[in-house]
């Protein structure tokens, strides 16, 4: 009798776990055309790597069932570099597992041409937001909020075995309530896929924005520390309103001199940027330590 009760209990627990996992895993649809979307011209953003369009779904019930329309619609992102379909399929399978408030949701995709259907962020990218000279950018606490949102997104990815590999102001999206969301993890930087990628002739076809790329990433070797470097470069851009001159390919001595020229109003943020953009990857602070340190800085600033 006790054995029977134990078996029933295990079945109930297993069922509950399956239900919880299923609820947290949102299927990303593979679509063959964009006919279910009304795409607004012109593109709202154009880079060397992608074109982004704002779109809404058409009014058919079947489409609305698959794509529940939010108040802001969707982003249609056309990647300008062709990637192997197997790589895109595998990447999307990993995307299905990842849900975090600081990661942009991906709803659907197609492979030829490579297109992502993503969550729409009202204020677009951090790159564009900074150019507006928004009043929030004069608030020290807001800088800490930007940093913590980016770092929390990275912490989530790293804890799941994924290096983002493509952190830049263009790939940090700003929501209507000023929350930061990471988009566009480089397809070439999923650490679980290294064996597949090492055999791919397309490996070099998707290169992150060079101004924010760590020195080691130039050699296609990325670790969580590479994301820390890019985070530091993004924070420098937010504070300086321009990209910090890239140190990739320069000697360590030149880099040290360059750092001495970077003088910011906030010594705390200046120190964080310098530590994160250290040429030697092992000298950069881990994400968890940065979150703890910046959280304490924010608390102290709010108490002033």
TrEMBL record:
PROSITE patterns linked: PROTEIN_KINASE_DOM
Signal peptide boundaries: none
Record keyword Nucleotide-binding present: yes
Bilayer-crossing regions: 6-22
EC numbers: 2.7.11.24
Gene3D superfamilies: Transferase(Phosphotransferase) domain 1 (1.10.510.10)
Protein kinase domain boundaries: 38-296
Record-level Gene Ontology MF annotations: ATP binding; MAP kinase activity
Gene Ontology cellular component terms for the protein in this record: plasma membrane
This protein's UniProt keywords: ATP-binding, Kinase, Membrane, Nucleotide-binding, Transferase, Transmembrane, Transmembrane helix
Pfam family, one: PK_Tyr_Ser-Thr
Keyword Nucleotide-binding attributed: yes
CDD domains: PKc
Protein name: Membrane-associated tyrosine-and threonine-specific CDC2-inhibitory kinase wee-1.1, putative
The organism of origin for this protein: Entamoeba dispar (strain ATCC PRA-260 / SAW760)
UniProt lineage: Eukaryota, Amoebozoa, Evosea, Archamoebae, Mastigamoebida
């Amino acid at each position: 009798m006790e054995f029977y009760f134990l078996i029933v209990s295990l079945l109930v627990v297993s069922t509950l776990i399956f239900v919880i996992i299923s609820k947290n895993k949102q299927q990303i649809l593979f679509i063959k055309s964009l006919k279910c979307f009304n795409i607004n011209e012109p593109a709202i953003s154009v880079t060397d790597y992608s074109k982004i369009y704002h779109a809404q779904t058409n009014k058919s019930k079947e489409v609305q069932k698959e794509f529940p329309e939010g108040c802001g619609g969707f982003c249609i992102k056309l990647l300008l570099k062709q990637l192997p379909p197997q790589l895109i399929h595998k990447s999307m399978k990993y995307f299905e597992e990842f849900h975090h408030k600081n990661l942009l949701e991906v709803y659907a995709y197609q492979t030829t041409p490579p297109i992502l259907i993503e969550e729409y962020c009202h204020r677009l990218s951090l790159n564009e937001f900074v150019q507006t000279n928004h009043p929030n950018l004069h608030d020290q606490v807001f800088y800490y909020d930007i940093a913590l949102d980016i770092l929390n997104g990275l912490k989530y990815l790293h804890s799941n075995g994924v290096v983002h590999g493509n952190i830049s102001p263009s790939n940090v999206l700003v929501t209507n309530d000023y929350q930061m969301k990471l988009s566009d993890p480089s397809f070439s930087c999923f650490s679980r896929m290294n064996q597949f990628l090492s055999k791919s002739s397309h490996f070099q076809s998707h290169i992150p924005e060079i101004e924010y790329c760590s020195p080691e990433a130039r050699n296609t070797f990325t670790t969580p520390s590479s994301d820390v470097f890019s985070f530091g470069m993004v924070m420098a851009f937010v504070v300086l309103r321009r990209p910090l001159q890239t140190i990739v390919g320069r000697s360590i001595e030149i880099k040290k001199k360059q750092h001495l020229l970077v003088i910011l109003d906030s010594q705390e943020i200046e120190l964080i940027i310098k530590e994160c953009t250290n040429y030697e990857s092992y000298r950069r602070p881990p994400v968890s330590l940065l979150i703890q340190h910046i959280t304490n800085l924010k608390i102290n600033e709010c108490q002033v």
